[in-house]
Amino acid sequence: MILKDTYPGILFTLFIATLAWIVCLIFPFLNSILIGLLFGIIIGNFFKLPAPFSTGISISGSKVLEFSILFLAVGINYTYMGKIGWESFLLVGIVVFLVLIFSVFLSKKMNCPSTVGWMVGFGTAICGSSAIAALAPSLKNSKEETGIALAVVNLFGTLGMLFLPILIGLFSLSTTEISLLLGGTLHSVGNVAGAAFAVSDAVGEQAITIKLARVALLSPGLIFFNFLIRDKSATRNWKSYFQLPWYLWGFILITIWVSIFPVSDSVLKFSSETGKILLTIAMTAIGLKVSFSSLIQSGKKGLFYGLVIFLFQILLILIGLFFLNN
Predict the structure, then answer these.
(1) How much is the mean pLDDT over the chain?
(2) Which of 43, 89, 121, 240 is the most exposed place for a label (fewest CB within 10 A)?
(3) Is there a contact between 152 and 142 (Cβ–Cβ < 8 Å)?
(4) Distance of alpha carbon 35 from alpha carbon 33, whole angstroms
C-alpha cells in the first residue's frame, strides 16, 4: 500500500521521466534510461527538492526497478544459445563467467567501492543497464552507487560502439570473428546493433544473435554472482545461495517460460517498451538521489575500473578467437 506522503515524490519522478522519454522520441538515437538518469542528477543537484518528495523518489528508485526486470525478462530466450553454435556459445559463456570472477577480484585489489565495482563488472559481462538493474536491488548499496555504475557502463558502451568498428576495420577478420568481438564485448543490445550494422548487415544479424545468447546468461549469472560475493565468514549451506529476492525468481521463471512456449511479437514489443519505461522511471529516481560530490569522488575510480574490465573482456574474446582458429 502506497502512503499519501509518497505521492508527491512519485509524481515528480514520473514528470521528469516523461520529459526524458519525450526527448528520446524526438531524438531516437538517445537512450531514455541514461537521459532519465542524467536529468535526475542535474535536477537533484541544482534544485533543493521539498522534503516530502524524498519517500516517493526512494520508492520509485527501488520498487519500480524490481517490476521493470519482470517485463524485460520476457525478451530473454534461451534458444539463442543454440543458434550461435556450440563453439561460439562456449567462448561467450566462458568469457562472461571469467569477467564476473575478475570483477570481484579487481574490486578488492583496486579498493573500488564494492557494489560499484560489482555492478560495473556485472553490467559489462552481460547486458549493461538491464544487468545492473537486475543486480542492484539485491545489494546493500546506495542509490548513488547504482547511478555511478550505470554512468560508467553506458559511457564505455557508447565509446565501444563508436570506436570498436573502426579498430576492427584495421584487421582482416571474418564475419564470425567480427560478430564475436562486437556481440561478445559491447555492453547493451543497442550498442551491439549500432556497431555491428555499421560494419555490415551480415555482421549485424550474427552479432545480435551472439549478444542475445549472452543476455540469456543473466539468470545463471545472477546465481553465480550471488555465490561469488557471499559473506565467507558466515556459515551457509548450498541452499542459501539460491535465496534470491522474489523479483529475481520471477525473472528466472519468466525466461524459462518464454524459452519453452512461443510468445507473440506484440507481447514481446509491449513487454520491452513497458520494461524500458519502468526502468527510465527508476533511473530518474536514482539520479535524483545522486550528489555530484559522490559522483566525482567514486566516479574516477569507477571509470578506471570499468575500462580495465572492458579491456579484459576484449582480450579474452581475442584469446578465444586465436584458439578457435588453431
Answers:
(1) 82
(2) 240
(3) no
(4) 6
244, 222 Cβ separation under 8 angstroms: yes
CA atoms of 216 and 76, how far apart (whole Å): 6
Apex CA 200: angle with CA 194 and CA 202, to 5°? Answer: 105
With bands split at pLDDT 50, 70 and 90, how would you rate the model's confidence at 114? low
pLDDT of residue 161: 84
In the chain, % helix, strand, coil (3-state, to 5) comes to 80, 0, 20
Q: What is the distance between the alpha carbons of residues 100 and 304, in angstroms, rounded to a whole number?
A: 17
What pLDDT, on the 0 to 100 scale, is given for residue 241? 54
Calculate ∠ Cα 180-134-290, nearest 5°. Answer: 110
> In the structure grid, which three cell numbers stand for residue 285, read together?
529516481
Instruction: Give the Cα separation of 112 and 309 in Å (integer).
Output: 12
CA distances for 97 relative to 146, 253, 318, angstroms: 21, 21, 16
Which residue type occupies 245?
Answer: P
Q: Which residue's C-alpha cell is 584495421?
A: 170
Per the structure, the count of domains in the chain is: 1
161: which residues sit within 8 A by CB, 6+ positions away?
186, 190, 191, 192, 194, 195
Answer yes or no: are the C-beta atoms of 95 and 320 closer than 8 Å. Answer: yes
- H or E segment at 39? helix 32-46
Which domain does 145 fall in, by range?
A: 4-324
pLDDT at 96: 93
Q: Could you tell me which of 141, 151, 92, 193 has the C-alpha nearest to residue 306? A: 151
Q: Report the phi/psi class of residue 237: left, alpha or beta, with left for phi > 0 and alpha for psi in -120 to 50.
A: beta
pLDDT tens for 20-43 read 999 989 988 777 877 888 898 889
Cβ neighbours of residue 225 under 8 Å, at least 6 residues apart?
Answer: 100, 104, 118, 122, 135
